[in-house]
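Ticket opened by: R.M.
Priority: normal
Category: complex prediction / small molecule

The reporter submitted a protein together with zinc ion and asked that the result be attached to this ticket for the collaborator who will pick it up next week. Submitted input follows.
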Amino acid sequence: MTEIRPIQLGFDTCYVLRDAGIVVVDAGQPNKGRAFLRGLSRAAITPEEVGLILLTHAHWDHMGSAAEIKKLTGATLAVHEKEVDWVEHGNPPLPPGVTTWGRIFMAAHRLVMPLIDVPPAEVDRALPDETSALQEFGIPGRVIPTPGHSPGSISVLLDTGEVFVGDLAMNRFPLTLTPGLPIFADDLHRVVESWRRLVELGAQTVFPAHGKPFSIDVIRQCLIQRSEKAHEKDIQNSVDSGP
Ligand SMILES: [Zn+2]
Ligand SMILES: [Zn+2]
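Result attached by the on-call engineer:
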Protein backbone atom coordinates (compact mmCIF):
# COMPACT_ATOMS: atom_id res chain seq x y z
CA MET A 1 0.00 0.00 0.00
CA THR A 2 1.28 3.47 -0.88
CA GLU A 3 2.47 5.44 2.16
CA ILE A 4 1.21 9.04 2.34
CA ARG A 5 3.33 11.64 4.16
CA PRO A 6 2.02 15.22 4.36
CA ILE A 7 4.62 17.99 4.72
CA GLN A 8 3.42 21.49 5.55
CA LEU A 9 5.17 24.02 3.29
CA GLY A 10 3.70 27.29 4.55
CA PHE A 11 0.07 27.71 3.56
CA ASP A 12 0.18 24.60 1.38
CA THR A 13 0.46 20.91 2.25
CA CYS A 14 2.65 18.86 -0.05
CA TYR A 15 2.18 15.10 -0.05
CA VAL A 16 5.03 12.62 -0.36
CA LEU A 17 3.85 9.30 -1.80
CA ARG A 18 6.08 6.30 -1.19
CA ASP A 19 5.68 2.92 -2.84
CA ALA A 20 8.17 1.27 -5.21
CA GLY A 21 9.22 4.88 -5.97
CA ILE A 22 8.70 8.29 -4.38
CA VAL A 23 6.57 11.07 -5.85
CA VAL A 24 6.05 14.52 -4.32
CA VAL A 25 2.71 16.22 -4.99
CA ASP A 26 3.05 20.05 -4.94
CA ALA A 27 5.99 22.23 -3.96
CA GLY A 28 4.52 24.76 -1.51
CA GLN A 29 5.23 28.43 -0.91
CA PRO A 30 8.65 29.95 -1.76
CA ASN A 31 11.66 29.33 0.50
CA LYS A 32 10.37 26.08 2.00
CA GLY A 33 13.31 23.84 1.00
CA ARG A 34 14.44 23.35 4.59
CA ALA A 35 10.93 22.50 5.80
CA PHE A 36 10.72 20.00 2.93
CA LEU A 37 14.03 18.36 3.92
CA ARG A 38 12.89 18.13 7.56
CA GLY A 39 9.68 16.41 6.45
CA LEU A 40 11.61 13.94 4.30
CA SER A 41 14.02 13.20 7.11
CA ARG A 42 11.12 12.49 9.52
CA ALA A 43 9.91 9.93 6.97
CA ALA A 44 13.44 8.48 6.68
CA ILE A 45 13.61 9.41 3.00
CA THR A 46 16.77 10.82 1.40
CA PRO A 47 16.27 13.61 -1.18
CA GLU A 48 17.88 11.52 -3.94
CA GLU A 49 15.13 8.91 -3.60
CA VAL A 50 12.48 11.35 -4.90
CA GLY A 51 11.83 10.58 -8.56
CA LEU A 52 9.11 13.06 -9.48
CA ILE A 53 7.73 16.41 -8.32
CA LEU A 54 4.22 16.76 -9.62
CA LEU A 55 2.45 20.13 -9.38
CA THR A 56 -1.34 19.91 -9.09
CA HIS A 57 -1.30 23.38 -10.66
CA ALA A 58 1.08 26.31 -10.90
CA HIS A 59 -0.32 28.92 -8.50
CA TRP A 60 2.44 30.55 -6.44
CA ASP A 61 1.66 28.65 -3.24
CA HIS A 62 2.05 25.30 -5.04
CA MET A 63 5.12 25.99 -7.20
CA GLY A 64 6.99 28.45 -4.96
CA SER A 65 9.67 26.00 -3.81
CA ALA A 66 9.71 23.89 -6.99
CA ALA A 67 13.14 25.15 -8.09
CA GLU A 68 14.59 24.59 -4.61
CA ILE A 69 13.10 21.11 -4.20
CA LYS A 70 14.20 20.14 -7.71
CA LYS A 71 17.75 21.22 -6.89
CA LEU A 72 17.74 19.33 -3.57
CA THR A 73 16.37 16.10 -5.03
CA GLY A 74 17.40 16.05 -8.70
CA ALA A 75 13.86 14.83 -9.44
CA THR A 76 11.86 15.38 -12.64
CA LEU A 77 9.50 18.37 -12.39
CA ALA A 78 6.12 17.93 -14.09
CA VAL A 79 3.13 20.23 -14.59
CA HIS A 80 0.23 20.36 -17.02
CA GLU A 81 1.23 21.72 -20.43
CA LYS A 82 -1.14 24.70 -20.01
CA GLU A 83 0.79 25.97 -16.96
CA VAL A 84 4.42 25.35 -17.94
CA ASP A 85 4.98 29.05 -18.71
CA TRP A 86 3.71 30.11 -15.28
CA VAL A 87 6.36 27.90 -13.63
CA GLU A 88 9.19 28.80 -15.97
CA HIS A 89 8.55 32.54 -15.65
CA GLY A 90 7.52 32.54 -11.98
CA ASN A 91 4.45 34.62 -12.79
CA PRO A 92 1.32 32.60 -12.04
CA PRO A 93 -1.96 34.54 -12.17
CA LEU A 94 -4.37 34.66 -9.24
CA PRO A 95 -7.79 33.04 -9.74
CA PRO A 96 -10.96 35.06 -9.11
CA GLY A 97 -13.04 34.54 -5.97
CA VAL A 98 -16.25 32.60 -6.60
CA THR A 99 -17.92 33.31 -3.26
CA THR A 100 -18.34 36.62 -1.41
CA TRP A 101 -15.65 35.62 1.06
CA GLY A 102 -13.45 34.39 -1.83
CA ARG A 103 -13.74 37.78 -3.54
CA ILE A 104 -12.85 39.69 -0.36
CA PHE A 105 -9.98 37.32 0.43
CA MET A 106 -8.60 37.58 -3.10
CA ALA A 107 -8.84 41.39 -3.16
CA ALA A 108 -6.65 41.48 -0.03
CA HIS A 109 -4.34 38.85 -1.52
CA ARG A 110 -3.80 40.95 -4.65
CA LEU A 111 -2.48 43.78 -2.48
CA VAL A 112 0.27 41.65 -0.92
CA MET A 113 1.11 39.59 -4.01
CA PRO A 114 3.63 42.13 -5.42
CA LEU A 115 5.67 41.64 -2.23
CA ILE A 116 6.03 37.89 -2.81
CA ASP A 117 8.96 36.74 -4.89
CA VAL A 118 8.13 33.52 -6.78
CA PRO A 119 11.29 31.80 -8.10
CA PRO A 120 10.85 30.27 -11.56
CA ALA A 121 11.75 26.63 -12.20
CA GLU A 122 12.59 24.65 -15.31
CA VAL A 123 9.89 22.12 -16.16
CA ASP A 124 11.14 18.71 -17.32
CA ARG A 125 7.83 17.24 -18.32
CA ALA A 126 4.71 18.94 -19.67
CA LEU A 127 1.73 16.73 -18.85
CA PRO A 128 -0.70 16.22 -21.75
CA ASP A 129 -4.39 16.94 -21.36
CA GLU A 130 -5.19 13.27 -20.75
CA THR A 131 -4.89 10.60 -18.08
CA SER A 132 -1.38 9.28 -17.58
CA ALA A 133 -0.09 6.42 -15.41
CA LEU A 134 2.50 6.81 -12.66
CA GLN A 135 3.94 3.28 -12.86
CA GLU A 136 7.12 4.68 -14.39
CA PHE A 137 7.74 6.43 -11.06
CA GLY A 138 6.78 3.41 -8.94
CA ILE A 139 3.36 4.65 -7.82
CA PRO A 140 0.19 2.64 -8.51
CA GLY A 141 -1.98 5.52 -9.63
CA ARG A 142 -2.83 8.00 -12.35
CA VAL A 143 -2.70 11.68 -13.15
CA ILE A 144 -6.19 12.92 -14.06
CA PRO A 145 -6.80 16.32 -15.67
CA THR A 146 -9.28 18.10 -13.35
CA PRO A 147 -9.56 21.70 -14.64
CA GLY A 148 -11.70 24.40 -13.07
CA HIS A 149 -9.67 25.94 -10.26
CA SER A 150 -7.09 26.68 -12.97
CA PRO A 151 -6.99 25.56 -16.63
CA GLY A 152 -4.23 22.99 -16.09
CA SER A 153 -5.20 21.63 -12.67
CA ILE A 154 -4.59 17.90 -12.27
CA SER A 155 -5.35 15.36 -9.55
CA VAL A 156 -3.37 12.28 -8.56
CA LEU A 157 -5.64 9.28 -8.00
CA LEU A 158 -4.12 6.21 -6.35
CA ASP A 159 -5.47 2.79 -7.31
CA THR A 160 -6.59 2.46 -3.66
CA GLY A 161 -8.90 5.50 -3.97
CA GLU A 162 -6.95 8.31 -2.30
CA VAL A 163 -6.98 11.41 -4.47
CA PHE A 164 -4.72 14.48 -4.20
CA VAL A 165 -6.66 17.35 -5.69
CA GLY A 166 -4.62 20.51 -5.08
CA ASP A 167 -7.19 23.35 -4.86
CA LEU A 168 -10.08 21.53 -6.56
CA ALA A 169 -11.47 21.28 -3.03
CA MET A 170 -10.59 23.12 0.17
CA ASN A 171 -10.93 22.31 3.85
CA ARG A 172 -9.11 24.89 5.87
CA PHE A 173 -9.73 28.07 7.81
CA PRO A 174 -9.60 30.90 6.71
CA LEU A 175 -10.56 29.56 3.27
CA THR A 176 -13.51 27.43 4.32
CA LEU A 177 -14.94 26.17 7.60
CA THR A 178 -16.15 22.87 6.16
CA PRO A 179 -14.80 20.72 3.31
CA GLY A 180 -16.18 21.60 -0.11
CA LEU A 181 -15.85 23.69 -3.24
CA PRO A 182 -12.87 26.04 -3.60
CA ILE A 183 -13.54 29.73 -2.93
CA PHE A 184 -11.33 30.71 -5.88
CA ALA A 185 -11.72 29.27 -9.38
CA ASP A 186 -11.36 30.20 -13.02
CA ASP A 187 -14.49 28.22 -13.84
CA LEU A 188 -16.74 26.82 -11.09
CA HIS A 189 -18.77 24.83 -13.61
CA ARG A 190 -15.63 22.95 -14.66
CA VAL A 191 -14.72 22.37 -11.01
CA VAL A 192 -18.04 20.58 -10.56
CA GLU A 193 -17.46 18.54 -13.74
CA SER A 194 -14.01 17.55 -12.45
CA TRP A 195 -15.51 16.52 -9.08
CA ARG A 196 -18.03 14.38 -10.93
CA ARG A 197 -15.22 12.75 -12.87
CA LEU A 198 -13.30 11.84 -9.72
CA VAL A 199 -16.44 10.31 -8.17
CA GLU A 200 -16.99 8.24 -11.33
CA LEU A 201 -13.36 7.09 -11.30
CA GLY A 202 -13.77 5.65 -7.81
CA ALA A 203 -12.07 8.26 -5.60
CA GLN A 204 -12.69 7.51 -1.89
CA THR A 205 -10.70 9.99 0.21
CA VAL A 206 -9.90 13.55 -0.88
CA PHE A 207 -6.58 15.13 0.14
CA PRO A 208 -6.75 18.90 -0.48
CA ALA A 209 -3.63 21.07 -0.55
CA HIS A 210 -5.25 23.35 2.02
CA GLY A 211 -6.70 21.36 4.90
CA LYS A 212 -7.37 17.90 6.17
CA PRO A 213 -8.45 14.86 4.11
CA PHE A 214 -12.17 14.11 3.90
CA SER A 215 -14.49 11.48 2.46
CA ILE A 216 -15.63 11.64 -1.17
CA ASP A 217 -19.18 11.40 0.30
CA VAL A 218 -18.94 15.14 1.07
CA ILE A 219 -18.44 15.83 -2.62
CA ARG A 220 -21.12 13.33 -3.63
CA GLN A 221 -23.59 15.10 -1.32
CA CYS A 222 -22.59 18.51 -2.66
CA LEU A 223 -23.15 17.31 -6.25
CA ILE A 224 -26.62 15.98 -5.32
CA GLN A 225 -27.55 19.31 -3.68
CA ARG A 226 -26.36 21.26 -6.71
CA SER A 227 -28.33 19.13 -9.16
CA GLU A 228 -31.45 19.41 -6.92
CA LYS A 229 -31.06 23.20 -6.90
CA ALA A 230 -30.63 23.25 -10.70
CA HIS A 231 -33.75 21.10 -11.02
CA GLU A 232 -35.79 23.47 -8.79
CA LYS A 233 -34.56 26.40 -10.88
CA ASP A 234 -35.67 24.63 -14.09
CA ILE A 235 -39.14 24.05 -12.59
CA GLN A 236 -39.32 27.69 -11.43
CA ASN A 237 -38.27 28.90 -14.90
CA SER A 238 -40.87 26.74 -16.63
CA VAL A 239 -43.57 28.06 -14.19
CA ASP A 240 -42.46 31.67 -14.80
CA SER A 241 -42.49 31.26 -18.57
CA GLY A 242 -45.72 29.21 -18.52
CA PRO A 243 -48.93 30.14 -20.40
ZN1 LIG B 1 -4.59 27.44 -6.50
ZN1 LIG C 1 -3.48 26.89 -3.18
